[in-house]
Protein backbone atom coordinates (compact mmCIF):
# COMPACT_ATOMS: atom_id res chain seq x y z
CA UNK A 1 0.00 0.00 0.00
CA UNK A 2 1.20 3.54 -0.74
CA UNK A 3 2.27 5.29 2.44
CA UNK A 4 -0.12 8.12 3.34
CA UNK A 5 1.48 11.38 2.27
CA UNK A 6 0.38 14.74 3.56
CA UNK A 7 0.23 17.07 0.58
CA UNK A 8 2.65 19.89 1.30
CA UNK A 9 0.67 22.98 2.28
CA UNK A 10 0.54 25.84 -0.22
CA UNK A 11 3.21 28.41 0.58
CA UNK A 12 1.97 31.71 1.99
CA UNK A 13 0.91 34.31 -0.55
CA UNK A 14 3.89 36.44 0.48
CA UNK A 15 6.84 35.62 2.72
CA UNK A 16 9.50 38.20 3.47
CA UNK A 17 12.37 37.21 5.75
CA UNK A 18 15.05 39.63 6.91
CA UNK A 19 14.72 41.84 3.82
CA UNK A 20 17.05 44.83 3.65
CA UNK A 21 16.97 47.43 0.88
CA UNK A 22 19.23 50.48 0.79
CA UNK A 23 19.31 53.41 -1.61
CA UNK A 24 22.73 54.98 -1.08
CA UNK A 25 22.84 55.95 2.59
CA UNK A 26 19.08 55.56 3.03
CA UNK A 27 17.88 52.32 4.55
CA UNK A 28 14.42 52.05 2.96
CA UNK A 29 13.74 48.59 4.42
CA UNK A 30 15.87 47.48 7.35
CA UNK A 31 15.39 43.78 8.12
CA UNK A 32 11.70 43.21 7.47
CA UNK A 33 9.81 39.99 8.23
CA UNK A 34 6.21 39.48 7.20
CA UNK A 35 3.81 36.91 5.84
CA UNK A 36 0.54 37.30 3.98
CA UNK A 37 -1.55 34.16 4.41
CA UNK A 38 -3.67 32.93 1.51
CA UNK A 39 -7.03 34.65 1.27
CA UNK A 40 -6.05 37.35 3.76
CA UNK A 41 -5.79 41.11 3.49
CA UNK A 42 -2.63 42.52 5.03
CA UNK A 43 -2.31 46.30 5.38
CA UNK A 44 1.08 47.96 5.63
CA UNK A 45 0.46 51.13 7.55
CA UNK A 46 3.13 53.77 7.84
CA UNK A 47 4.01 57.42 7.48
CA UNK A 48 5.71 58.88 4.39
CA UNK A 49 9.06 57.21 3.83
CA UNK A 50 8.36 54.24 6.12
CA UNK A 51 9.35 51.79 3.37
CA UNK A 52 5.92 50.57 2.27
CA UNK A 53 6.31 51.12 -1.48
CA UNK A 54 9.82 49.66 -1.46
CA UNK A 55 8.41 46.56 0.24
CA UNK A 56 5.74 46.22 -2.46
CA UNK A 57 8.31 46.78 -5.20
CA UNK A 58 10.40 43.90 -3.86
CA UNK A 59 7.30 41.69 -3.94
CA UNK A 60 6.39 42.82 -7.45
CA UNK A 61 9.88 42.03 -8.71
CA UNK A 62 10.70 45.65 -9.62
CA UNK A 63 13.64 45.62 -7.25
CA UNK A 64 15.58 42.96 -5.32
CA UNK A 65 16.46 43.06 -1.63
CA UNK A 66 20.16 43.64 -0.84
CA UNK A 67 19.82 40.98 1.84
CA UNK A 68 17.12 38.56 2.97
CA UNK A 69 14.50 36.69 1.01
CA UNK A 70 11.20 37.58 -0.67
CA UNK A 71 8.87 34.83 -1.90
CA UNK A 72 5.57 35.42 -3.66
CA UNK A 73 3.26 32.40 -4.02
CA UNK A 74 6.40 30.41 -3.22
CA UNK A 75 8.36 31.91 -6.14
CA UNK A 76 11.17 34.43 -6.55
CA UNK A 77 9.56 37.65 -7.84
CA UNK A 78 12.57 38.50 -10.03
CA UNK A 79 13.80 35.11 -11.28
CA UNK A 80 10.25 33.73 -11.69
CA UNK A 81 8.68 36.94 -12.96
CA UNK A 82 7.15 35.34 -16.09
CA UNK A 83 5.49 32.58 -14.08
CA UNK A 84 4.18 35.03 -11.52
CA UNK A 85 2.88 37.72 -13.86
CA UNK A 86 -0.41 35.99 -14.78
CA UNK A 87 -1.08 35.16 -11.12
CA UNK A 88 -0.68 38.58 -9.54
CA UNK A 89 -2.30 41.99 -9.96
CA UNK A 90 -0.40 45.21 -9.37
CA UNK A 91 -1.75 48.69 -8.73
CA UNK A 92 1.08 51.19 -8.61
CA UNK A 93 1.05 54.47 -6.75
CA UNK A 94 0.07 57.19 -9.20
CA UNK A 95 -1.27 54.89 -11.94
CA UNK A 96 1.54 54.56 -14.48
CA UNK A 97 -0.55 54.66 -17.66
CA UNK A 98 -0.09 56.00 -21.19
CA UNK A 99 -2.01 59.31 -21.02
CA UNK A 100 -3.58 59.00 -24.48
CA UNK A 101 -4.98 55.50 -23.96
CA UNK A 102 -8.75 55.25 -23.53
CA UNK A 103 -10.25 53.68 -20.43
CA UNK A 104 -11.88 50.78 -22.29
CA UNK A 105 -8.73 50.10 -24.33
CA UNK A 106 -6.53 49.99 -21.27
CA UNK A 107 -8.78 47.55 -19.52
CA UNK A 108 -9.20 45.40 -22.64
CA UNK A 109 -5.42 45.30 -23.04
CA UNK A 110 -4.95 44.16 -19.45
CA UNK A 111 -7.76 41.59 -19.87
CA UNK A 112 -6.14 40.32 -23.07
CA UNK A 113 -3.06 39.18 -21.14
CA UNK A 114 -5.12 36.95 -18.83
CA UNK A 115 -6.35 33.41 -19.38
CA UNK A 116 -9.75 33.85 -17.69
CA UNK A 117 -10.28 37.58 -17.24
CA UNK A 118 -13.22 39.20 -15.54
CA UNK A 119 -15.76 40.88 -17.81
CA UNK A 120 -14.31 44.41 -18.21
CA UNK A 121 -17.84 45.88 -18.37
CA UNK A 122 -18.65 44.36 -14.98
CA UNK A 123 -15.49 45.85 -13.47
CA UNK A 124 -16.18 49.27 -15.00
CA UNK A 125 -19.66 49.18 -13.57
CA UNK A 126 -18.50 47.96 -10.15
CA UNK A 127 -15.95 50.74 -9.96
CA UNK A 128 -18.36 53.42 -11.15
CA UNK A 129 -16.59 53.95 -14.49
CA UNK A 130 -19.46 53.09 -16.84
CA UNK A 131 -19.69 55.84 -19.43
CA UNK A 132 -15.97 56.60 -19.28
CA UNK A 133 -14.94 53.78 -21.68
CA UNK A 134 -13.98 56.15 -24.50
CA UNK A 135 -12.40 58.80 -22.27
CA UNK A 136 -8.61 59.09 -22.61
CA UNK A 137 -6.74 58.40 -19.39
CA UNK A 138 -5.45 61.98 -19.12
CA UNK A 139 -9.02 63.33 -19.18
CA UNK A 140 -10.20 61.16 -16.30
CA UNK A 141 -10.39 62.75 -12.86
CA UNK A 142 -7.74 61.69 -10.34
CA UNK A 143 -10.26 59.44 -8.64
CA UNK A 144 -11.30 57.84 -11.94
CA UNK A 145 -7.65 57.21 -12.86
CA UNK A 146 -7.16 55.58 -9.50
CA UNK A 147 -10.19 53.30 -9.98
CA UNK A 148 -9.11 52.41 -13.51
CA UNK A 149 -5.68 51.38 -12.20
CA UNK A 150 -7.45 49.15 -9.70
CA UNK A 151 -9.63 47.67 -12.45
CA UNK A 152 -6.51 46.89 -14.52
CA UNK A 153 -4.90 45.19 -11.50
CA UNK A 154 -7.97 43.00 -10.98
CA UNK A 155 -9.21 42.20 -14.48
CA UNK A 156 -6.88 39.20 -14.88
CA UNK A 157 -8.53 37.46 -11.91
CA UNK A 158 -5.27 37.36 -9.90
CA UNK A 159 -4.66 35.10 -6.89
CA UNK A 160 -2.78 37.88 -5.16
CA UNK A 161 -2.95 41.65 -5.56
CA UNK A 162 -0.57 44.39 -4.50
CA UNK A 163 -2.32 47.71 -4.01
CA UNK A 164 -0.19 50.76 -3.28
CA UNK A 165 -2.43 53.29 -1.54
CA UNK A 166 -5.56 52.15 -3.40
CA UNK A 167 -7.80 54.87 -2.00
CA UNK A 168 -5.40 57.83 -1.87
CA UNK A 169 -7.22 60.92 -3.10
CA UNK A 170 -10.62 59.23 -3.49
CA UNK A 171 -13.79 60.87 -2.22
CA UNK A 172 -15.71 58.99 0.51
CA UNK A 173 -18.15 57.34 -1.96
CA UNK A 174 -15.36 56.04 -4.19
CA UNK A 175 -13.38 54.93 -1.16
CA UNK A 176 -16.29 52.82 0.02
CA UNK A 177 -16.66 51.31 -3.46
CA UNK A 178 -13.03 50.24 -3.33
CA UNK A 179 -13.39 48.91 0.21
CA UNK A 180 -16.38 46.81 -0.87
CA UNK A 181 -14.43 45.47 -3.81
CA UNK A 182 -11.49 44.49 -1.60
CA UNK A 183 -13.93 42.73 0.74
CA UNK A 184 -15.31 40.79 -2.25
CA UNK A 185 -11.79 39.83 -3.26
CA UNK A 186 -11.19 38.34 0.17
CA UNK A 187 -14.53 36.48 -0.04
CA UNK A 188 -13.31 35.02 -3.33
CA UNK A 189 -10.08 33.81 -1.67
CA UNK A 190 -7.82 36.44 -3.22
CA UNK A 191 -4.85 37.52 -1.07
CA UNK A 192 -4.20 41.24 -0.81
CA UNK A 193 -1.16 43.21 0.31
CA UNK A 194 -1.97 46.90 0.42
CA UNK A 195 -0.37 50.04 1.75
CA UNK A 196 -2.15 52.90 3.38
CA UNK A 197 -1.64 55.96 5.53
CA UNK A 198 -5.17 55.71 6.85
CA UNK A 199 -5.74 53.97 10.15
CA UNK A 200 -9.47 53.64 9.50
CA UNK A 201 -8.76 51.92 6.19
CA UNK A 202 -6.52 49.36 7.87
CA UNK A 203 -9.14 48.85 10.57
CA UNK A 204 -11.95 48.45 8.04
CA UNK A 205 -10.22 46.14 5.57
CA UNK A 206 -7.35 44.17 6.95
CA UNK A 207 -7.11 40.78 8.63
CA UNK A 208 -3.58 41.70 9.67
CA UNK A 209 -1.98 45.11 10.05
CA UNK A 210 1.71 45.86 10.12
CA UNK A 211 2.74 49.30 11.30
CA UNK A 212 6.02 50.17 9.58
CA UNK A 213 8.44 52.79 10.78
CA UNK A 214 11.81 53.55 9.15
CA UNK A 215 11.80 50.26 7.26
CA UNK A 216 10.98 47.90 10.11
CA UNK A 217 7.91 46.55 11.90
CA UNK A 218 6.85 48.67 14.88
CA UNK A 219 3.73 46.67 15.65
CA UNK A 220 1.77 43.84 14.06
CA UNK A 221 -1.51 42.11 14.72
CA UNK A 222 -5.17 42.04 13.85
CA UNK A 223 -6.90 45.43 13.90
CA UNK A 224 -8.57 44.36 17.15
CA UNK A 225 -5.28 43.36 18.79
CA UNK A 226 -3.70 46.64 17.79
CA UNK A 227 -6.73 48.63 18.87
CA UNK A 228 -6.58 46.88 22.24
CA UNK A 229 -2.92 47.77 22.50
CA UNK A 230 -3.86 51.31 21.63
CA UNK A 231 -6.86 51.24 23.91
CA UNK A 232 -5.02 52.21 27.03
CA UNK A 233 -7.27 54.65 28.75
CA UNK A 234 -6.51 57.98 30.19
CA UNK A 235 -8.18 60.33 32.64
CA UNK A 236 -8.17 64.05 31.92
CA UNK A 237 -9.12 66.26 34.81
CA UNK A 238 -8.93 69.89 35.79
CA UNK A 239 -8.02 71.30 39.20
CA UNK A 240 -6.06 74.33 40.41
CA UNK A 241 -2.61 74.56 38.77
CA UNK A 242 0.74 73.33 40.09
CA UNK A 243 -0.55 70.77 42.57
CA UNK A 244 1.98 68.38 44.09
CA UNK A 245 1.40 65.08 42.28
CA UNK A 246 3.66 62.95 44.49
CA UNK A 247 0.83 61.63 46.68
CA UNK A 248 -1.25 60.69 43.64
CA UNK A 249 1.75 58.89 42.12
CA UNK A 250 2.22 57.00 45.39
CA UNK A 251 -1.47 56.12 45.49
CA UNK A 252 -1.58 54.81 41.90
CA UNK A 253 1.82 53.12 41.68
CA UNK A 254 4.32 52.72 38.85
CA UNK A 255 1.87 51.54 36.15
CA UNK A 256 0.52 55.06 35.78
CA UNK A 257 1.99 58.13 34.13
CA UNK A 258 0.68 61.36 35.66
CA UNK A 259 1.38 64.79 34.18
CA UNK A 260 0.19 68.35 34.41
CA UNK A 261 -0.06 68.86 30.64
CA UNK A 262 -0.78 72.56 31.02
CA UNK A 263 -1.46 74.65 34.14
CA UNK A 264 -4.54 73.20 35.80
CA UNK A 265 -5.04 70.33 33.25
CA UNK A 266 -3.89 66.93 34.41
CA UNK A 267 -3.53 63.58 32.64
CA UNK A 268 -3.38 60.08 34.13
CA UNK A 269 -2.39 57.30 31.70
CA UNK A 270 -2.64 53.60 32.45
CA UNK A 271 -5.31 50.94 32.98
CA UNK A 272 -8.29 52.88 34.27
CA UNK A 273 -10.50 51.05 36.78
CA UNK A 274 -13.18 52.67 39.00
CA UNK A 275 -10.68 52.73 41.91
CA UNK A 276 -8.38 54.93 39.83
CA UNK A 277 -11.12 57.52 39.36
CA UNK A 278 -11.82 57.31 43.09
CA UNK A 279 -8.09 57.76 43.87
CA UNK A 280 -8.02 60.95 41.80
CA UNK A 281 -11.09 62.31 43.60
CA UNK A 282 -9.70 61.32 47.02
CA UNK A 283 -6.36 62.94 46.25
CA UNK A 284 -8.14 66.19 45.32
CA UNK A 285 -10.00 66.10 48.62
CA UNK A 286 -6.70 65.57 50.48
CA UNK A 287 -5.23 68.53 48.61
CA UNK A 288 -8.26 70.61 49.73
CA UNK A 289 -9.09 71.44 46.14
CA UNK A 290 -12.22 70.99 44.06
CA UNK A 291 -11.98 68.55 41.19
CA UNK A 292 -13.15 70.24 37.96
CA UNK A 293 -14.02 68.43 34.73
CA UNK A 294 -13.09 64.70 34.73
CA UNK A 295 -13.14 62.63 31.55
CA UNK A 296 -12.07 59.03 30.83
CA UNK A 297 -10.92 58.56 27.24
CA UNK A 298 -9.63 55.62 25.19
CA UNK A 299 -6.59 55.92 22.98
CA UNK A 300 -7.55 54.90 19.48
CA UNK A 301 -5.47 52.98 16.94
CA UNK A 302 -4.49 56.33 15.48
CA UNK A 303 -2.93 57.34 18.78
CA UNK A 304 -0.97 54.08 18.91
CA UNK A 305 0.20 54.69 15.36
CA UNK A 306 1.39 58.20 16.21
CA UNK A 307 3.07 57.03 19.39
CA UNK A 308 4.91 54.27 17.53
CA UNK A 309 5.93 56.20 14.49
CA UNK A 310 6.42 59.69 15.91
CA UNK A 311 4.37 62.80 15.49
CA UNK A 312 6.71 64.84 13.37
CA UNK A 313 5.91 65.24 9.67
CA UNK A 314 8.54 63.63 7.43
CA UNK A 315 9.89 65.10 4.26
CA UNK A 316 9.58 61.83 2.33
P1 LIG B 1 5.07 57.04 1.01
O1 LIG B 1 3.97 56.77 1.96
O2 LIG B 1 5.48 58.49 1.00
O3 LIG B 1 4.82 56.49 -0.35
P2 LIG B 1 6.72 54.77 1.70
O4 LIG B 1 6.42 54.24 3.07
O5 LIG B 1 6.10 54.07 0.56
O6 LIG B 1 6.39 56.32 1.63
P3 LIG B 1 9.21 54.34 0.34
O7 LIG B 1 8.73 54.99 -0.92
O8 LIG B 1 9.36 52.87 0.33
O9 LIG B 1 8.31 54.79 1.58
O10 LIG B 1 10.61 55.03 0.70
C1 LIG B 1 11.39 54.63 1.82
C2 LIG B 1 12.66 55.46 1.83
O11 LIG B 1 13.50 55.10 0.74
C3 LIG B 1 12.41 56.96 1.69
O12 LIG B 1 13.36 57.63 2.48
C4 LIG B 1 12.65 57.22 0.21
O13 LIG B 1 13.08 58.54 0.00
C5 LIG B 1 13.74 56.21 -0.11
N1 LIG B 1 13.67 55.74 -1.50
C6 LIG B 1 12.69 54.99 -2.04
N2 LIG B 1 12.95 54.72 -3.33
C7 LIG B 1 14.14 55.30 -3.61
C8 LIG B 1 14.96 55.38 -4.79
N3 LIG B 1 14.62 54.79 -5.92
N4 LIG B 1 16.11 56.07 -4.70
C9 LIG B 1 16.47 56.66 -3.52
N5 LIG B 1 15.75 56.62 -2.38
C10 LIG B 1 14.60 55.96 -2.42
Automatic annotation (TrEMBL):
Species whose genome carries this gene: Mycolicibacterium hodleri
Entry-linked SUPFAM superfamilies: P-loop containing nucleoside triphosphate hydrolases (SSF52540)
Record bears the keyword rRNA processing: no
Major location (coarse): membrane
Cell compartment(s), UniProt: Cell membrane
Protein name: ABC transporter ATP-binding protein
One GO molecular-function entry: ATP hydrolysis activity
Keyword list, A-Z: Antibiotic resistance, ATP-binding, Cell membrane, Membrane, Nucleotide-binding, Translocase, Transport
GO BP term, example: response to antibiotic
Boundaries of every ABC transporter domain copy: 14-239
InterPro entries listed in its UniProt record: AAA+_ATPase, ABC_transporter-like_ATP-bd, ABC_transporter-like_CS, ABC_transporter_ATP-binding, P-loop_NTPase
Entry-linked PROSITE patterns: ABC_TRANSPORTER_1, ABC_TRANSPORTER_2
Protein topology in the membrane: Peripheral membrane protein
Gene Ontology cellular component list: plasma membrane
Amino acid sequence: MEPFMNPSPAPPAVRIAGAVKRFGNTVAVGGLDLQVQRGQVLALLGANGAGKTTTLEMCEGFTSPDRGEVRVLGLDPVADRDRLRPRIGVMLQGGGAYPGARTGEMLALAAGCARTPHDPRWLLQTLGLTGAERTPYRRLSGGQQQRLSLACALVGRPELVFLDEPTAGLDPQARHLVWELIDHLRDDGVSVLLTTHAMEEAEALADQVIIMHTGTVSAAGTPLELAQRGAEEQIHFTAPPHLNLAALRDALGTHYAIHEVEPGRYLVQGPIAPEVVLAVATWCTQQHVVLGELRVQQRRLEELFLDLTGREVRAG
